């Protein structure tokens, strides 16, 4: 009789554990699907080469182009493809292009 009680208790504990794991997995999937994922893209002008350069260590990504608009388009396409290959595509991916331009006036 004690053996049957022990088996029942083990079976119940196993079901409870599986239910908790499934709840955690479902909740984490919900969190991932509902959160914005933001990537900062650093954009600089390379005076020597005459090109715009974009770098993002998080994706990872490094690109260059003669025009700023072309660079933005290239980065959007390459970022999506890279994230897709790495299995990191979610519903809410944002790219934040950051650039600073310095000019000497005196």
Short recap of the structure:
With 106 residues, the chain is an alpha+beta fold.
Taking strands numbered 1, 2, ... along the chain, how are they ordered across the largest sheet? 3-2-1-4
Number of domains as seen in the coordinates: 2
Low-pLDDT sequence parts: 24-31
Give the name of the CATH superfamily of the largest domain: TTHA1013-like
Overall mean pLDDT? 81
Percentage of residues in strands: 25-35%
From N to C, what is the helix and strand string? HEEEHE
* Oligomeric state of the chains in view: single chain
Q: How is the biggest beta sheet arranged?
A: 4 strands, mixed
State the end-to-end distance. 94 Å
CATH class of the largest domain: Alpha Beta
Number of strands: 4
Q: Could you name the CATH topology of the largest domain? A: TTHA1013/TTHA0281-like
CATH architecture of the largest domain: 2-Layer Sandwich
Integer-rounded radius of gyration: 25 Å
Q: Could you estimate the helical fraction of the residues in percent?
A: 40-55%
Tally of DSSP helical segments: 2
The gross shape turns out to be rod-shaped
The helix/strand class is alpha+beta
């Amino acid at each position: 009789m004690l053996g049957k009680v022990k088996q029942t208790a083990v079976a119940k504990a196993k079901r409870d554990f599986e239910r908790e794991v499934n709840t955690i997995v479902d909740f984490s999937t919900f969190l991932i699907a509902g959160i914005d994922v933001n990537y900062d893209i650093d954009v600089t002008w390379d005076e020597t080469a005459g090109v715009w350069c974009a770098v993002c260590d998080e994706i990872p990504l490094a690109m260059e182009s003669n025009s700023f608009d072309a660079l933005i388009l290239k980065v959007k396409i390459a970022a999506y493809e890279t994230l897709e290959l790495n299995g990191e595509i979610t519903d809410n991916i944002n790219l934040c292009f950051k650039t600073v331009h310095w000019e000497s006036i005196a």
